[in-house]
Design goal:
Chain lengths: 337, 292
């Protein structure tokens, strides 16, 4: 009996993984860009180039342009690229053109979820040509660097993974959104966020408030004007908590203020100005969302959590008041008077 | 070979893995029924389990050790064979889905069965000893995953109690109880007298069940507070969504899949026990036929 078992085990060891593909025969996908032009679905796939040429430094990428009458057909054509089997396990970024988001964003996201079950890749939207972006940016790293830089410097964009976007589409008390980018005159820039429910595009300022309230950004740069003079203040180490009680949303923001433009004498005044400006922007943002009964933040869910039922949820959400508390501390060196 | 007694800790570990088995493969069904009230269903199910398990243990205490009914013996053997096939099938699909994408189903299936057979080659107490050893590996892996999931907690998808209907919570609780207690029926094949310090065994058995249920509830909480129940319900193996997102410490960040292998311990112990029971029932039947 032992010999039979040993024989079976040995035979099994010889079989190995029968569908195994050598790593050199794999097209390792780094980035995918989806677009629709007229009736054609365009799929731009950026893969990592396996073999380095002489004197090469860094990772090389290769882009493939595939068209199909449907997304399924396009991905089917993409199963083999240059006689290599397409391998999606290292997918890092998906960029979806606005044409697809306008048409049927939820179905596109469902398709992506079924095609790529692992959800750790980033998702962005764009109004620019995906072919242009894929030709200009050979890998996801450059785009990711841009997003992190923008997040740090301007707080107008934040890296969101697929599951963060997808779960909002499934939840009735949340409205999902996708960060948008634009490629124009050889420069990549943030283009706000696209709310999928009603296809609205929020501008950079609204996007900044959205990211703040969702705790997607740790700092917000603010430029204040006073007496024809501009003051740049960095509001960082941010933490935002929201609560709902007695028909009022209470938003509490804590953070540190840092500025080289503000003297010690001016601190109190600038702090008050900053708080006033920020409160105004947040109020405008939330009132706009309440009017449309949209909630890209957690506010509607908070109402539901408090009420315990969905009766009059929308009405309560729309009619709720706002109470914003901003707690700040000045940090770092300021200029003396 | 002489039948050695099963130790109390071994019995505890066996109970733990048997009642925890369903979580990886069938936990998604509870989420689909109860939705955001999955935790309530599990808590309710746990209370039900304690009550029903006490009844099961009483039956076990007074059960006759050797079966003399031919039809019953054949029925038991068939049920065990079908269970072995189902468990091995589900485990193979999971392994292919998450670890060995290019693996051949048949060979992985066969390897699983061979492993289970080798585990069962000695007596039932060796399966129980393996369960104890695996329990000591399970605990640090589970703690690691728990700590790693702190980073992915997102309270913005919390829902009020009974977001789904009360009937769904009850259905979820009953399903939880069914899934947890069904494998524990195999404890009927470990005779009451074949345990060290038999007067204390009920305490250890209950402890195994309760700790297993607590671990399951914590795992469901990690799903609910991490990716959220609404997202997890769209996946066949919801807990793997948490595994995907867990950030480790330094180099462990790349080893998440290795640290998730503890999820297969339940199936290993269950398959080993099933083979062991099949072998033991066969021996008992042969002895009974000889004595006639």
């Amino acid at each position: 009996m032992k010999k039979i078992i040993a024989l079976i085990v040995i035979i099994l060891l010889f079989t190995g993984c029968t569908k195994y593909t050598e790593i050199n025969n794999l097209a390792i996908v780094d980035m995918i860009l989806l677009e629709k032009q007229e009736d054609q679905y365009i799929l731009n796939i950026t893969t990592v180039k396996g073999q380095k040429e002489e004197n090469d430094t860094g990772i090389k990428h290769q882009t493939y342009h595939i068209e199909g009458k449907s997304l399924g057909e396009a991905f089917n054509k993409a199963e083999q690229l240059d006689n290599k089997k397409t391998y999606y396990e290292h997918l890092a970024l998906i960029i979806i053109h606005d044409s697809l988001l306008q048409e049927d964003a939820i179905n596109i996201l469902d398709f992506i979820k079924n095609q790529f079950p692992k959800t750790n890749y980033l998702v962005l939207g764009t109004t620019s040509s995906t072919t242009l972006i894929s030709n200009q940016f050979k890998g996801h790293q450059d785009i990711e660097k841009f997003i992190k830089k923008e997040q740090l410097e301007n707080a107008t964009i934040a890296p969101l993974t697929f599951d963060q976007i997808y779960k909002a589409t499934l939840d009735k008390e949340h409205d999902s959104f996708i960060p948008m980018i634009r490629y124009q005159e050889e420069t990549l820039s943030g283009a706000g966020i696209k709310v999928l429910k009603n296809n609205t595009l929020y501008d950079q300022n609204m996007s900044k408030i959205n990211y703040l309230l969702n705790n997607n950004v740790n700092q917000i740069p603010m430029t204040l004007e006073k007496d024809n003079k501009s003051y740049f203040i960095n509001f960082d180490h941010l933490n935002v908590t929201t609560s709902f009680r007695k028909d009022t949303f209470t938003i509490t923001i804590t953070g540190d203020l840092q500025s080289s433009d503000v003297t010690k004498k001016e601190q109190e005044e600038m702090e008050a100005l900053l708080k006033e400006q920020l409160k105004k922007e947040i109020t405008t943002f939330i009132e706009m969302e309440q009017k449309e009964s949209i909630s890209t933040t957690n506010l509607k869910n908070l109402v539901y959590l408090k009420m315990g039922n969905k009766e009059k949820l929308d009405t309560t959400y729309q009619k709720s008041k706002l109470n914003i508390k901003i707690n700040t501390t000045w940090k770092g060196e300021t200029i003396d008077d | 070979m002489t039948n050695r007694n099963v130790g109390l800790l071994q019995l505890f570990s066996l109970t733990f893995f048997l009642s925890h088995f369903f979580f990886l493969f069938y936990g998604g069904n509870i989420i689909k029924i109860s939705g955001s009230d999955t935790i309530f269903s599990c808590l309710l199910g746990t209370f039900l389990n304690i009550f029903l398990f006490s009844i099961l243990l009483r039956i076990r205490k007074h059960k006759k050790t050797k079966s003399k009914n031919k039809v019953l013996a054949i029925a038991i053997a068939l049920i065990i064979l079908v269970t072995i096939f189902l468990v091995a099938n589900d485990t193979t699909y999971f392994v292919i889905h998450h670890y060995l994408e290019n693996g051949n189903y048949f060979y992985i299936f066969l390897l699983l069965l061979i492993c289970a057979y080798i585990i069962s080659k000695r007596n039932m107490d060796s399966v129980a000893s393996l369960a104890l050893l695996l329990f000591f590996l399970f605990v640090p892996s589970f703690i690691y995953n728990m700590i790693g999931s702190i980073n992915i907690l997102d309270l913005s998808y919390l829902k009020p109690p009974f977001d789904s209907s009360f009937a769904n919570v009850i259905k979820g609780a009953l399903l939880f109880s069914f899934y947890t207690l069904l494998p524990l029926l195999l404890l009927l094949f470990i005779p009451y007298d074949q345990v060290d310090q038999k007067e204390k065994q009920h305490k250890y058995l209950h402890l195994g069940l309760i700790i297993s249920n607590i671990v399951t509830i914590i795992s469901f909480m990690m799903i609910g507070l991490g990716p959220s129940f609404v997202l997890a319900s769209t996946y066949q193996y919801p807990y793997m969504v948490v595994i995907n997102k867990i950030s480790g410490f330094l180099v462990f960040n790349r080893l998440n899949y290795i640290f998730s292998l503890y999820l297969l311990f339940d199936a290993t112990v269950l398959l080993g026990l099933l083979f062991s029971i099949l072998k033991k029932e066969g021996e008992n039947w042969r002895l009974f036929k000889k004595s006639q």
